[in-house]
Amino acid sequence: MNKHLKYFLKIWLIPAIAGIAIAVFLRGNFFSFVRISGQSMSPNLVNNQIVLLEKKANVSRGTVIVSKTNNLQKQNTGVQDIALRVVALPGDKVNYKKGQLYVNGKKVNQSYISSQVKTETGMSIDTGWSINSLSLSKNWPKSQRNIKKVQKNSYFVLADNRIDPVDSRQYGLIKKRQIEGVVKVFFLGNKNKD
């Protein structure tokens, strides 16, 4: 083998192949880039915005997740994956009254949305509700009907755009297995209001 070819293989080709293999492994198992579809998280995330998704991150209250939609959501919205904010964890009780959201009896600080958005929604139920009253809806899966708190391996999620009822108020709890990952980095590129 000639000296220049050896040099090229050693210095350029082998490291490039190793770098690509590492990137593919990390993307497949730990991180991915996702394009936000729809206005559910507006104004914090908007349609076509690209975000970095951490696949193995812990889910906690306040985090933004990307989740697969259930069959009814997919049928009604045409969206397969949706970004939503986790409001309550397994075992939590959730209710809403007089424009305030409560988890386990404590008022939730929702500084990520405006005062107007907190009280102005497109749903008549938002004058007041509890997880129990929401769970009586025919849109909720039968396995989640008439519950008083968030079930095991499930999460109660809300859209930051509260006028957009594609969240737990309308469609029930998000199952842990539906979660694709936690939004970690918001890229300002491609951020438009289509």
From TrEMBL:
GO molecular function ontology, one term from the record: signal peptidase activity
Domain of life, per lineage: Bacteria
Protein localization: Cell membrane; Membrane
EC numbers: 3.4.21.89
One GO cellular component, as annotated: plasma membrane
Its membrane topology: Single-pass type II membrane protein
GO terms classed as biological process: signal peptide processing
Peptidase S26 domain segment(s): 12-187
Keywords, in A-Z order: Hydrolase, Membrane, Protease, Transmembrane, Transmembrane helix
Keyword Membrane: yes
Gene3D superfamilies, per database record: Umud Fragment, subunit A
InterPro entries, sorted: LexA/Signal_pep-like_sf, Pept_S26A_signal_pept_1, Peptidase_S26
Enzyme class: hydrolase
NCBIfam families: sigpep_I_bact
Protein family membership: Belongs to the peptidase S26 family.
Name listed for the protein in its UniProt record: Signal peptidase I
